[in-house]
Amino acid sequence: xxxxxxxxxxxxxxxxxxxxxxxxxxxxxxxxxxxxxxxxxxxxxxxxxxxxxxxxxxxxxxxxxxxxxxxxxxxxxxxxxx
Length: 82
Fold this sequence. Notes:
60% helix, globular
């Protein structure tokens, strides 16, 4: 389980990483990474940055299956509890 991470905090971390990778001024937790201009290489970059930020390995395919910060954070939380 991820330590010291509430669902809201993790959603904000994911949204911030997506914002940085996409080079945007803002990125809402319910915005779609791919609809906002993300692609496969940017998803790999985002997953690497997320892994560093939260200390848990995030597979790029997780972003493909969960392209919003809300859904991505929920899946990370679910997987980290196993």
